[in-house]
Amino acid sequence: MSDQRKVNEKSKNEQLNEFRTEDHGKKMTTNQGLRVSEDEFSLKAGERGPTLMEDFHFREKMTHFDHERIPERVVHARGYAAHGEFELYESMKEYTRAKFLQEPGSKTPVFVRFSTVAGSKGSGELARDVRGFATKFYTEEGNYDLVGNNMPVFFIQDAIKFPDLVHAVKPEPHNGIPQAASAHDTFWDFVANNQESAHMIMWHMSDRAIPRSFRMMEGFGVHTFRFVNEQGKAYFVKFHWKPTLGVHSTVWDEAQKINGKNPDFHRADLYESIEKGDYPEFELGVQIIDEADEFNFDFDILDPTKIWPEEDVPVKIIGKMTLNRNVDNVFAETEQVAFHPGNVVPGIDFTNDPLLQGRLFSYTDTQLIRLGGPNFHELPINRPVCPFHNNQRDGYGRQTINRGQVSYHNNSLANNTPETSSAEEGGYVHYQEKVDGRKIQARSESFKDHFSQAILFWNSMTDAEKDHIIQAFSFELGKVSNQSVQQQVVNMFANVNLAMAQEVAGNIGVEQPQQASKIANEITKTSPALSQENTRKKPDTRKIAVILGDGFNEKDVKHVIEGLKKQKTEPEVVSSKLGTIKGKEGKELEVDQTFTTADPVLYDAIYVIGGDNLQEAFWKNATYYVNEAYNHFKPIGATHEGIKCLENNSLSDKPGVITDTDISSFVSRFTEAVSEHRFWNR
Ligand code: HDE
């Protein structure tokens, strides 16, 4: 590892340290540094008199408060972020000159923000929505931002339609309803009248739109980018993040309930896992296509509504990102971070994907209003770790004190510095793609197939996943009040699968389409990588509610809890009251949650054990827990008195329900069920 890289590993954190401040244990002062003698009572003319203007501390405190909000992001307002590092496994020298992708083992500090798209800053995190997955790499050549989503395609093909899409999905303007939801007339009216959205809608109706955790989502750069190597040769590239825990989701009923029980579910999950040292990990993968093969696919590789099926263009895993540090201050870091797909480094370039091209304009533009001027790059979280020098000056909130007389180029007074760099010196040189065309406002013919890959997606789903898609369509369209819109959408999706469209039509009471599209019958291809059923499955960090009360069997409970922890699951004792419960032999055990502070939707699995002589109310709560878990297809385990509880609810002997009188075999059988995550065959 080069010395420069070793420095870089820590440098972002060290850089942030210069801005950190600790108020704890300090004397209170004004922003001018004056010690404050009174912070409870404003200065008044007499004890019952009016407050005086000259009370500068009151004025400063109130003015700052009055101005402490900034506009939320126009999309992706609800987000949560963490710091980490990216370690390269394999040199990409053959394909790109990007320095952070050269030396295996080299590490680059990163900052990642996950988000929902449609909802406001305070909305529930389990909305059916796309998730943003934005990564800032603080490289020695400047910041590189990979501003992606958890779905590999997008709703539209041209950025000029983005304001329309967003207006359609946001709360309807005449009544401000609904918040953080696509289940309303304007969104589906947009879909039916903009059929390029078909493929993305299949993802949006799938389980991908209701992830179990930010730690269990894939990330995608979506667009086709370019890698350019030292010799100037270019390749087309798509970026993927693959979570080492696999890709996992909730079910819709559960997601809606989580939004009520814990609207911070995803951020709390991320924050707590980092605090516990269960660092979220994502491997970086690239799909690479040689320039010579640009036209060798049955879709246009620049079309952002298309994937490159992984079975056709394999994903090469080149490194791993580990998120290992929470922010110190959510506003300063998570809120003020400014991502931009145009932040690139030498060796990474753009393509003519018209969605990408438009994004290159939008991000700086939106930061200018959101962060109040052109100096947002100086905010600690946005500063590159390498020095920056140019002739840009002034503006609101400028912090840099540029010394010297000269702020223009060319000049002689400063020896024509700051000077530009050649490519050899690390200067960014745009890839010299030959472009030739008439100015025209049109869409390429090669972008006009909207259904083939929507069909590929449908074909690749398991029966359970297909069922979830049908249920999602039925819910979303069931919430649409305009029957013509409902009918248009159902007719549109008959182009993907007739039986699916007919079932949805039946569920929402509109006419069943009769005509399957020709291609729907012709396309039989599947892409196994699209199904979440083929993902990694592990018990790690799965939360288990251990339902326990007074009179429990100490030895066995200890054995099970320790056994579950050994398998890296996270058991929590749930009982009627907080405090401690007493075992048969008088030993006490701390209760983590009560039946009411927690809820079965907040756990991945339930283990009922109970205790001797428990009240009916205890078993009533336990019954609610196991039934909810059962309805959400989650693993359920029972031993001791818990077995009776399952029998009373006719749940024993069902798939994913483990009962055992032998405590040792129980632990291994139950852990196996927990690793399975969900039992769709109930
Ligand atoms: Fe964005 N997008 N976007 N987007 N986007 C923003 O920038 C935009 C698109 C994505 O955590 C905004 O700073 C246009 C695709 C993420 O801070 C804004 C188009 C993808 C985030 C903007 C798209 C994304 C944003 C709002 C159509 C996946 C959150 C606030 C051409 C590849 C970043 C902001 C964060 C945020 C514009 C489409 C990802 C308005 C015009 C496709 C993850 O500039």
UniProtKB/TrEMBL annotation:
<comment type="similarity">
    <text>Belongs to the catalase family. HPII subfamily.</text>
</comment>
<dbReference type="Pfam" id="PF06628">
    <property type="entry name" value="Catalase-rel"/>
</dbReference>
<dbReference type="InterPro" id="IPR043156">
    <property type="entry name" value="Catalase_clade2_helical"/>
</dbReference>
<keyword id="KW-0376">Hydrogen peroxide</keyword>
<dbReference type="InterPro" id="IPR018028">
    <property type="entry name" value="Catalase"/>
</dbReference>
<dbReference type="Pfam" id="PF18011">
    <property type="entry name" value="Catalase_C"/>
</dbReference>
<feature type="region of interest" description="Disordered">
    <location>
        <begin position="1"/>
        <end position="37"/>
    </location>
</feature>
<dbReference type="InterPro" id="IPR011614">
    <property type="entry name" value="Catalase_core"/>
</dbReference>
<dbReference type="InterPro" id="IPR020835">
    <property type="entry name" value="Catalase_sf"/>
</dbReference>
<dbReference type="InterPro" id="IPR029062">
    <property type="entry name" value="Class_I_gatase-like"/>
</dbReference>
<keyword id="KW-0575">Peroxidase</keyword>
<dbReference type="Pfam" id="PF00199">
    <property type="entry name" value="Catalase"/>
</dbReference>
<keyword id="KW-0560">Oxidoreductase</keyword>
<protein>
    <recommendedName>
        <fullName>Catalase</fullName>
        <ecNumber>1.11.1.6</ecNumber>
    </recommendedName>
</protein>
<keyword id="KW-0408">Iron</keyword>
<dbReference type="InterPro" id="IPR010582">
    <property type="entry name" value="Catalase_immune_responsive"/>
</dbReference>
<comment type="function">
    <text>Decomposes hydrogen peroxide into water and oxygen; serves to protect cells from the toxic effects of hydrogen peroxide.</text>
</comment>
<keyword id="KW-0479">Metal-binding</keyword>
<keyword id="KW-0349">Heme</keyword>
<dbReference type="InterPro" id="IPR041399">
    <property type="entry name" value="Catalase_large_C"/>
</dbReference>
<dbReference type="InterPro" id="IPR024708">
    <property type="entry name" value="Catalase_AS"/>
</dbReference>
<dbReference type="GO" id="GO:0004096">
    <property type="term" value="F:catalase activity"/>
</dbReference>
<dbReference type="InterPro" id="IPR002226">
    <property type="entry name" value="Catalase_haem_BS"/>
</dbReference>
<dbReference type="InterPro" id="IPR024712">
    <property type="entry name" value="Catalase_clade2"/>
</dbReference>
<feature type="compositionally biased region" description="Basic and acidic residues">
    <location>
        <begin position="1"/>
        <end position="26"/>
    </location>
</feature>
<feature type="domain" description="Catalase core">
    <location>
        <begin position="29"/>
        <end position="417"/>
    </location>
</feature>
